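Quick note —
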Amino acid sequence: MFIEKFKKWTSILLIVCSFAVFSGCARGNAVSDASNTDGNKQMSKLDEIKKSGKLVVGTSADYPPSEFHKEINGKDEIVGFDISIAKEIAKDLGVELQIKDMKFDGLLAALNAGNIDIVLAGMVPTEERKKSVDFSNVYYTGEQGILVRAEDNGKYKSIGDFKGKKVGVQKGALQEKIAQEQFKESEIKPVGSVSDLVLQLKSKKVDAVLVGAAVGKAYANKNKDLAMTDIKIEYDYNGTAVAVKKGNQDLVDSINKTIDRLKKDGLIEKYYAEATEMAEN
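Predicted structure written out below.
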């Protein structure tokens, strides 16, 4: 009798333990799976921006009228055409705008490192750049021109007249590529910023600066010793767009909505005209 009862209770105990073990294993898997699921849920860049309450825009503020420094009410501020667009993007996202000023050739590295959210800097969406970042729709197209010293303006009638001359370009910008392709008999001098290029032009370290036509005109209007040549630069120009780190299509789509609205309302032309006037005064 005792042996039978012992066997009975032993069997019950084994069943209970087995149930507990399997229940424990099942819960462990469930917790583990839930943890993995939660771990795989990564917040999108768009959500990160909205959560932080600010949009960090990288630019190179030496490129009037797109982006440049201006003293307003005794305070140095970064203003310009691109900045107006950046403000609209931030407004549509419901966040504040923060501007980070840096060298043009460091912008994409900063973007991919997560130091900035987007790039607005008169940047052309070239095929080479598209390998590392995504772009919004083009929001502006413009011409290229050649800035020279006013005293030398009459010397240059064609690109061929720059044979053996030093032509400055902004390092990493569209103009560097144009110069390499079209000014093959010139000495190309890449420099980090347009403002530095202008200083080199004034000090005769370079003979000319290849630059966006509107930007060149803004510098010429501000500096009577400089002038824009009448030489036309023929180039398949794709326009300028907003750069975004790859894998953030929702952010690109949101930016495109803002660009579409600005185009529809005629604000692109308005902002460019206002920025040009501000750069000239």
